[in-house]
Write a structure and sequence with these properties.
5-stranded antiparallel sheet; mainly beta
Length: 108
């Protein structure tokens, strides 16, 4: 049986949790099928995900707010509705405003 999710309500729920969290973030793995992973990640303004390695393939879609994807090849600022491939290099994510994103990754 497949579980469905409303991304808008997940984003809202996780932003509310992030705002109450001492770390200013909240995340949930919503799809885990074979090599496919999709997670909703919420960050309050100014919070970040530290630099980390990229999976074999991944995209970032902004559900709400504004974020900056940081990478050696150059930073990219994204707003609501933007979809961006994640570069195959170490990268990080900074919330410019309270924001929620959908991370889609394919693992090896």
């Amino acid at each position: 049986m497949t579980t469905t999710h409303t991304l808008t309500s997940l984003a809202d729920d996780h932003l509310a949790i992030a705002r109450e969290s001492a770390h200013g973030r909240s995340a949930e793995l919503i799809v885990h099928e074979d090599q496919l992973r999709q997670s909703v990640i919420a960050l309050t303004a100014g919070r970040s995900l530290e630099e980390h390695n990229a999976p074999p393939a991944a995209t970032l879609q902004v559900l709400t707010g504004r974020v900056r994807l940081t990478a050696v090849s150059g930073d990219i600022t994204l707003g609501p509705g933007h979809l961006c491939p994640i570069p195959q290099e170490r990268h990080g994510l900074v919330a410019l405003t309270d924001a929620a994103v959908l991370l889609t990754a394919v693992t090896a």
